[in-house]
Amino acid sequence: MSPADSIRDDSDAGSQSSQIVSTTYRALARGDDKIFLENLADMVEWIVPGPPDHPATGTHIGKEMLLSAFARFSEVAELQEMTIERVIGDGVITVVLGRERWRVRASGRLFDTIWANAVTVEDGQITRVVVYADTSNETAAYAGR
Q1: Hey, what's the torsion of the CAs at 66, 8, 100, 26, to 10 degrees?
Q2: Is 36 helix (H, G, I), strand (E, B) or coil?
Q3: Can you point out the beta strands (E) in 10-135?
Q4: How far is 61 from 24, CA to CA, in rounded Å?
Q5: pLDDT by residue (tens digit) across 58-89?
């Protein structure tokens, strides 16, 4: 069983929003871009707070801008592993807890990130994601520290 298949789902079993989020994040974890993108609103807002010198931070609006941000990030780091640990929700907002391991392309240095995403679902599509993560270890890895 892959990490994408072993998500602990603490959401209301009847919540369509949490089911959409769970399906979308499972797709993201296994690299299924088609399913991932199908569940995002065309003008999805993906917000990653953090320092301006971090390659993934900023507010990305729309699927194209989001894909461009993902591509920029993958130029500097390669995803080694993504685990979705828990999906919690029962209404419009669902929280996803997860972790990732990345390798900095320039140095080969590995770093781990633990994160929480607050995901808004409206009319059956994800319209907003706010990422909460400590980017200090990532920034240090890029700087070779």
Answers
A1: -40
A2: helix
A3: 40-48, 58-61, 77-89, 93-104, 110-122, 125-133
A4: 18
A5: 999 999 999 999 998 899 999 999 999 999 98
Spatial CA neighbour of 10 closest among 88, 101, 98, 92: 88
pTM listed for this prediction: 0.86
Question: To 5 degrees, how large is the angle CA 35–CA 62–CA 36?
Answer: 10
Asked if the model's pLDDT at residue 5 lies above 80, the reply is no
- Other Cβ atoms less than 10 A from the Cβ of 44: the count is 20
User: Hey, where are the domains in the chain?
Assistant: 3-142
Best CA proximity match to 62, nearest among 47, 77, 84, 82: 47
Q: Which residue has the tokens 């995803």?
A: 79
What is the spatial distance between Cα 126 and Cα 36, in angstroms, rounded to a whole number? 10
C-beta neighbour count of 47 within 10 angstroms: 16
Residues recorded for the chain: 145
CB 100 within 8 A of CB 81: yes
In contact, 57 and 78? CB cutoff 8 Å: no
CATH class of 3-142: alpha beta
Helix (H, G, I), strand (E, B) or coil at 37: helix
What pLDDT is recorded for position 10?
53
